[in-house]
Specification:
Layout: E1 8-21, E2 24-29, E3 32-38, H1 45-57, E4 59-63, E5 66-71, H2 72-75, E6 78-83, E7 90-92, E8 95-97, H3 104-121, E9 127-129, E10 136-151
Helix pairs in contact: 1-3
């Protein structure tokens, strides 16, 4: 199911959202986006930059009579980023399997780089985050509800061949010869 790698985000438009760890609230936002981040093998700075830019600029809020007119950035809203390896889960019978998720040590580096990039592209004080690797209680009040999945363009995984299959190859086009 995940032949091509891509960073995966689940965006939820919220009136507010918060994260608690061990019963203590560690972050909270008011109106904005709650963003769950799934990281898989092969995610790089390219996927980080694409997803960070896109989440700040996707138009999920109305303006006057236009339903999807304004972005988080346009409105100056807040964002809460939460690492969620289960976005790369698949079912093996009745049990979830997470081998498509990047291992925790590597994923932490990518997650931290993603949060840093969002802060660089936006107002750092409007960017909150969960605690990587912790068991979190995430509370939210959906606005809409509006929930959208966002993926970076698929990168070529190391196992994929760069050769095109016969179905993917484009026929060579030649110009017809002129008759004399």
């Amino acid at each position: 199911p995940f032949g091509q790698v891509a960073m995966r985000l689940l965006l939820q438009r919220v009136l507010n959202a918060s994260v608690c760890v061990n019963g203590v609230q560690i972050s909270r936002i008011e109106k904005g986006l709650l963003v769950f981040v799934g990281i898989t093998q092969g995610d790089t700075d390219k996927e980080i930059a694409f997803c960070a830019n896109k989440l700040l600029n996707v138009r999920l809020w109305p303006q006057e009579e236009r339903a999807w007119a304004k972005s988080l950035k346009d409105n100056g809203y807040e964002v809460l980023i939460v690492s969620q390896f289960t976005l790369y889960g698949i079912w093996k019978g009745n049990k979830p399997d997470f081998h498509y998720a990047m291992p925790p040590a590597e994923a932490r580096v990518v997650y931290d780089a993603f949060v840093k990039k969002v802060k660089e592209l936006y107002h750092p004080d409007k960017v909150q985050e969960g605690e990587f690797g912790a068991m979190m209680e995430v509370g939210l009040i959906n606005d809409g509800p509006v929930t959208m999945q966002l993926e970076s363009p698929p990168a070529q995984s190391p196992k994929q061949s760069t050769k095109q299959s016969p179905k993917e190859q484009k026929p060579e086009v030649t110009e017809p010869e002129e008759k004399q």
